[in-house]
Specification:
Layout: E1 9-14, H1 19-34, E2 42-48, H2 54-68, H3 76-83, E3 86-90, H4 96-113, E4 118-123, H5 130-139, E5 149-153, H6 161-174, E6 180-182, H7 190-200, E7 214-222, H8 231-234, H9 239-256, H10 265-278, H11 284-290, E8 291-297, E9 299-301, E10 304-306, E11 324-330, E12 340-346, E13 353-360, E14 376-382, E15 386-394, E16 402-410, H12 411-414, H13 422-432, H14 441-460, E17 467-470, H15 477-481, H16 496-505
Parallel strand pairs: 1-2, 1-4, 2-3, 4-5, 5-6, 7-12, 8-17
Antiparallel strand pairs: 7-13, 8-11, 9-10, 11-12, 13-14, 14-15, 15-16
Helix pairs in contact: 1-2, 1-13, 5-6, 6-14, 9-10, 9-14, 10-14
Length: 506
């Protein structure tokens, strides 16, 4: 974590009664507070349209901290101290009176602090309110200081390239680009941040990180959860927009980027954007050859029955919206020429798993009969936070017999301290004015350009080659067939049962 900032902080959360605030934002801010990462002077202004008793509101936030904080239940005295900095403001996002009241509260806080500090405005709201709130903040001059005032915008950032461009244009007319923080919580995950350190601080890997030594790369984010109560949003979005366009393409950028000139926000964001612009565009024919889309049907996950996607709440019974996407991508630059990148994501799958697999080329000259498994680097983002290297080793004995073994680095074994949640790192970066882990306007648009040919092809042929897979499986067979001839199936983390057995044997 970075050192404390001296500036007072006025933190405003729009959508304070929402799930994101209760599950993520307040627990993250509370953890930053008890670990002394927030400035000595701060205030949290929670804005929502519902009329609610402030004491009841704070009790609800406390229950969220007790349930979702990585530090467990809040210590009563610490919570009392933290909750005293929270105030609830009932107000309609579309009414100017809301912002007049908010401005008065923020200015009163700054007067009592005797210093103009940082202002952070977090948009934990539905996309339709982003422009409404941004316009009001600009009009009322609540966010006019380019050095100290910032807005944080959650995904989805647009629904296609045109809407993303429109939103970027709208925001940058009212705020400078350095004031706009487009948040992707995946980039705040500890293991994701560690990929850069792993690549660029360890010279043993960087010379091998190219087409000469790497056969292919898999990036897979499997979700065990179904769509659940998000059917209304999800049926208009789908896995490509919800996961590929942001989370998985950001992971691809970190894996594939060139070493930036310095560990600075703009240098890193430049390097990521270059990757996105180097991805080979899809033709309509290539979409249906190199992209697999599918939808889950009824099945069983962890011995619990699941209904089909088309039976979920607020989902059309004739919906062609994809809940699974697997795709093969090529990056046309000198480093990655000819190396396929395979991306996969899906809902209602066997287990939760976010994994990056770097598969190296086979031994060029085989002198051992059982040298059959190529070297493989596995970066597990969740649920297990670890990096492992698979290599061949001789089995002890009188014969030359090889067996693949793993050399593991796990956070749990290497560090005793608990890891900060993604939102803790990201919120603290916003307060510090560090945009390294946030997406720039051109980066967002470049990502949309990658997926637009796919969306356009699907729009023209809504049901063409739509696959189906049973809930509780790893997706359709076509998803694995996409890997051929590079691999037979997607890499799978060991099952929970296997992990338990290994732990017992240790």
């Amino acid at each position: 974590m970075k050192p404390k900032k001296a500036y007072p902080a006025a933190i405003t959360i729009f959508g304070a009664r929402g799930d994101l605030t209760r599950r993520k934002l307040i627990p993250a801010l509370y953890n930053l507070f008890i670990e002394n990462h927030l400035p000595a002077l701060f205030e949290i202004f929670c804005v929502d349209f519902q009329t609610v008793d402030e004491a009841a509101f704070k009790n609800d936030l406390l229950s969220g901290v007790n349930e979702f904080s990585r530090n467990g239940k809040a210590e009563p005295s610490k919570w009392a101290e933290f909750a005293a900095r929270i105030s609830y403001l009932q107000g309609d996002f579309t009414k100017k009176e809301t912002y007049v009241s908010l401005k008065a509260k923020v200015e009163d806080f700054e007067k009592s602090s005797k210093q103009r500090g940082n202002r952070m405005f977090y948009f934990a709201v539905a996309p339709r309110f982003i422009e409404v709130i941004a316009e009001a903040l600009a009009t009322r001059k609540l966010c006019s200081n380019k050095t100290h005032d910032r807005i944080v915008v959650e995904k989805p950032f647009g629904t296609d390239l045109a809407t993303a461009r429109k939103l970027n244009h709208f925001l940058t007319k009212r705020f400078s680009e350095k004031q706009v923080y487009r948040i992707d919580h995946y980039l705040g995950k500890e293991t994701v941040q560690n990929i850069m350190a792993f690549r660029f601080a360890n010279f043993v890997f960087e010379p091998l990180w190219n087409k000469n030594y790497i056969d292919h790369i898999q990036i897979s984010v499997a979700e065990q959860v179904s769509v659940g109560k998000r059917g209304g949003y999800y049926d208009a979005s789908g896995a490509l927009r919800d996961m590929i366009q942001n989370h998985l393409l950001q992971l691809l950028c970190i894996v594939a980027m060139e070493c930036p000139g310095a560990y600075k926000a703009e240098a890193i964001r430049d390097a990521k954007t270059k990757v996105l612009k180097s991805i080979r565009p899809f033709t309509t024919q290539q979409v249906f050859k190199n992209v697999v889309r599918a939808q889950y049907t009824a099945g069983e996950v962890d011995e619990v029955q699941r209904i089909a996607y088309r039976q979920e709440e607020q989902v059309s019974p004739e919906s062609n919206t994809e809940t699974f996407v697997a795709m093969k991508m090529m990056i046309d630059n000198p480093r990655w020429e000819g190396v396929p990148f395979f991306l996969r994501t899906g809902k209602s799958m066997t287990r939760q798993s976010s994994v990056i697999v770097v598969q190296f080329k086979d031994s060029p000259h085989k002198i051992f009969r059982d040298d059959i498994v190529p070297n493989r680097l596995i970066i597990s983002i969740q649920p297990e936070l670890e990096i492992s290297l698979l290599f061949e080793s001789k089995v002890p004995g009188l014969q030359m017999k090889l067996v693949p073994v793993e050399m593991d680095f796990t956070y749990q074994e290497a560090y005793t301290e608990s890891l900060p949640e993604a939102y803790e790192a990201l919120l603290l970066d916003v307060l510090h004015g560090d945009a390294t882990l946030f997406m720039r306007a051109d980066q967002v648009e470049a990502a949309w350009k990658v997926v637009m040919p796919i969306l356009d092809a699907w729009k023209k042929s809504p049901s063409k080659l739509l696959q189906f897979y049973e809930s509780g499986t790893w997706g359709p067979v076509a998803g694995s067939n996409l890997l051929k001839p590079y691999a037979k199936e997607w890499y799978r983390l060991p099952s929970r049962e296997t992990i338990k057995k290994l732990a017992v044997n240790k």
